[in-house]
Amino acid sequence: MSMGESPKKPVDERPAILMDAQTRKLMASSKIMMVDDEPINMRVLQLHLTAQGYGRFVSVTDSRLAMSTIRSERPSVLLLDLNMPDVSGLEILSEVRSDEELKQLPVIVLTSSNDPETKVEALQLGATDFLPKPVDANELALRMKNTIVARAYEQRLMHFDSLTNLPNRLYFSRLVHKLMKSPALTNGRVALLLFNINRFKSINDTFGSEQGDDVLWAFSQRMQLVFDHAQGISPLQKETLKPHCIARLGGARFGVLVQFGVGQCEAPVIQEWLPLLIGELEKPFFVEQQDVYVSTSVGVSALGENAHTVENLINNAETAMRYAKEQQSPGYALYSSDMMSRARRALRMENAMRTALVNDEMTLVYQPKVDVRTGMINGAEALLRWNNPDLGLVSPVDFIPVAESTGMIVAIGHWVLEAACRQAVIFRKECNPAFKMAVNVSIRQLYEASFHQSVDEILKRSALPSEALIIELTENMIMDDVEANIGKLSLLRELGVGISVDDFGTGYSSLSYLQRFPIDQLKIDRSFIMEIESADEKAPIVKAIVSLAHDLELSVVAEGIEEQVQLDHIRKLGCEEYQGYLKSRPVSASDFMQLMLDELRKCA
Question: Which end of the chain, N or C, is more open, meaning fewer C-beta atoms within 10 Å of its C-beta?
Fold first, then answer.
C-alpha cells in the first residue's frame, strides 16, 4: 500500500553495533542503588560496575533509611543485602513490592546466607534475581545488564504504542502529571488537542484491518510532520508553540499536548491555525489503488480553570471533540463548561433511552405525503417522538444522535419499522388501498448484515405488501461507502420496497454514482423550498433537482411546503408529491386517519 508522501513502516533490522551503543547508553544512565550495612562491599561493587560502564550510584548503609531513599532517588535497579540490623532486606523487599509506585522496581538480592529457605522467601516476595556472596563481578555485571535491558523493554511496551511507536495514554498521563507540578505551564498555557478519525471503522470494514493499521500509522507520521516546525508543510511555521508530546490515546484517537506562548491559547489564535492543521491531516491516503479520504474532529481543552487533573483534561477534550463531530463544521471545538452540561444531559438521555421502548415512551406521528396534481393524501412519513417522565418531550435532533452513537438506534429503528408497517396496513384497509408508508433508516441499521432480512420478516408479519413501504436514507449516508451501499440497497429492492433519498441537495453526491444506485425517489430538502417566496422566483436548485430526477426516471417529493406559492411553483416544475405544514403538521395515527376520512367525504 502506498501512502503518498508517507514512508512505509520501517523494519527493525538495526545493526548489532547500534544495539550495543544503545545498551551502553542505557547502562550509563541507569541509577544503581545499593543497600548494605558493610560500606566496603558497596565500594567494591561500585568499582566493578563503573568499569563495566555504569556511572550513577546511590549507597545506603543504614537500612532504616532505605525506603525513604528509594522513594526520593527512584533508582533503576536496587542491589539489596538481606542480612542487616534494624531493618532486614526481606522487610525492605516486602515494603517495596507493596508500594504501588515502586512495585515494578527490579531488585537483585545479595546475601552470604546459604539457607535455601531464605532464597525461596526472597523470590516469593518478588526478588527479580538472586546472587550469593561473595559476588562474582562479571556475573553481577551480566545480570545487571540483562535486568536493565529487560526493564527498558518492558517500559517501552508499557508506555509506547506498538503500531505507531508513539507514546500511549499511560505515558501521556504521567507526562501531564509532571507538567502540572510546574505552575508556569498551567493556567491555560498547556492544552490538549484531541484528534479523532471519524468513521474509521468503515475503512477497516472496506479494506481490512491490516490496511486500516497502515492508515493509522501513516496518519501518525503525518501528524508528526505537521507539528514539526522544520517541515515546510507545517502551518505552525510562524508560531512559537511547541508540542510536548504526540500520543496515540486509543483506537483512532491521537492527542497532542501543546505548550503555548503568552496569549496564544486564546480562541482567535487557535481558530487561525487549527483549520490549517486539519486541512493537512485530511489530505487523501492512497490505499489499494484509490484515494481514501478521512475526516477528523478535534476537541481542545486547556489545563486551568476547568481542568485540574489528567482525567479532566482528557474528558474535556473528549466532550469538545464529540461536540465538533456533531456540528460537523468547522471540525473542531474549544471546550466550554456548557458543553459538559450538554454531555451530562446526553448521558441522562442515554440511560433513559435504554428503557424507553419497554416503558412505551416512544410513539410515532405521521406527516402526509400529498399528490401535487390532485391534492389528495397518498402516503405518509413516519416520524419518531419520545416523551420521557423526567426529560419531557425530547427532540429527535437531540436523541437520534445519542441513539446512533450508542447503537440503540438498531433496536429503536426495528420498532419504528414494525410499528409503521402495522399502521400502514390499517390506513390501507380503512382509507386508501394504495397508501404507502415511508420510514427513515439510520446508517447503523443499514450496516447490519441482516437488515434486509429483518425488513422482509416485518413485512410478512404485518402483512404489508412490499411495494407499500418506502425506505428513506439521507444523501450522505448512501455516499459513505458507495459500493457496499449499492449492494445493500439492491437487496432491499429485490424485496420490492421503494428507496428514497432524503435531504437531497445538501450532501456531496457524485452524479456518476447516483445513477448507479437502485433508488426510486429524491426528496428536495426544505432549505431549498424556503427560497421560493414569489410566483416568479427562479429557484434554480429546485428546478435542477426535479429535472435531474426525471432524467433518471425518479419521482420527486418536495419537503417543507408551507405557502401556496411554493406549491404552485413545484407543480409547474412537475414535482409529484409534497410534504409540509400547508397540508398538515405531523399528527397522531388517529388524527391522520381523520384527515384521510375527511378527504374521502369531500370527494364523495
Answer: C
